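## retry 2 of 3
previous attempt timed out at serialization; input unchanged, resubmitting
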Amino acid sequence: MPHSGPSLLEPVRLAELLDVGLQRHSDEPALVSMERQWTWAQLDRITSGLAAHYLSLGLTPGDRVASLMPNRVPLLAHYLACFKAGLVATPLNYRYTPPEIDHALEVSEAAIIVAHAERKDDIAASKARDLRLGVVTYGESESSAPSLERFLVDEPPALTLPEVDSDAPAAIFFTSGSTGPAKGVTHTVDSLGWLFASAGAAFELTPEDTLLPGSSCSHIGGVAFSFAALSKGARVVVARAFDHDELGPLLRMTRPTVLSMLPTALLRLIREHDISKDDFSSLRLCRCGGDKVPAELEKEFVAMTGHPINEGYGMTEIGLATLNPPSGVVKFGSVGSPTPGFVVSVRSDNGEEVVRGQQGRLWVKTPTQTSGYWNNPEASDQVMKDGWLDTGDVMKADEDGYLWFCGRKKQIIVHDGSNICPQEVEEALLEHPAVENAGVIGVHDLLHGENVRAYVEIRADAAPPTARELIQFARERVGYKAPEEIVFLEEMPLNATGKVDRVTLKKLAADDHALHI
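## retry succeeded, writing output
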């Protein structure tokens, strides 16, 4: 039968998102980075003014406002301004190339884009200049174009901000494009409000918390966790990058109580020579997700900090769906139990509920669910049926209702009729002390259907093992699932969300196959 998370009473009201912080500590910092900080009162005033400036440009409620911005305090202010003005925030991944920028602008039909000056060449090479209202710059003081920095400090026009319907679109987030062109995941005022409320309750956030979302605020995770914290009156720390040089000083300066990171970035952080247990001593919760958390990362993190990693699972379409509960039992290797407001169901390919312990596709029902893919009803109909969303991820549920990730349906490797999860093989390889990163894919084989190929990045300070040694190392841990071949890479390709880019690995495999035909 379906598994349900705790009940969720009401969504966060986007227009009143700052109210708790304003009432509790209006003159204390709300947003903090290494370069600036704003109090709750300043943040409220600045974002209301920015909303008025946007509307004065000729934007009207419902217009899509794209952004191509790195993590900065003003980026979160930009989103809040969009919420207040009834505009549809449309973040683009900061690593997008001009063709990817064009695709996102075309799909969303954006009216304007806010872009950082260091991307001006890519903006010039894209169709951004053809947008109805052009470009708002950031970090380009000599430009004659409208400037986000000036909007943040200039006296705003005397405009009344609009009332926005709960079913109006509030944001469009683009998928990573791992199975085709990126789709625009649409969230309404209502679904986004439920999404923030669910994440805030799942993290058990209070006004005494400080949250450091160590991931991009152009993706759903960084946005959801940041605004969930702000809605609870908690301080948010904005990391400009996710490496040791930025995160190390931030940990020491801001003493966060909640940390959220991708596995690859967290593993690299804790392996830095000058990171110590004291740097994490303020934490009460470390959430990790976005990809499978390797056992080696869990082991090293516990050894260094004394804290477990609370693994979770989520999607752009639904937000944070599961989490090992902060005040409950943490099961290493599990992605946890359903978060507040979520009902999950593990089903076979024919749509029938499977018994506990058996693998199946995860279906989700939640008020946080996307209203659909922007201008793509066919894609929406493929994943949403009768109020449920088909995640496409293979899971199994244990006797306590905790879920265990078994792989993406489209990434499962079928070798001699057996299903092999790439993440399980990657996890085995990552246990080797010389392996920095690993990506596993299936390559076509006439005899076996698919063979397991592992792409491996070796740590710079390690003696490189041979392919035979790594295969044997993996075989001792995962048996027949071990790779048949190893390919060494100088650097592992990562996709736009910081995960191992299996699409690129598939292309490398295809190119290699073509060379041998």
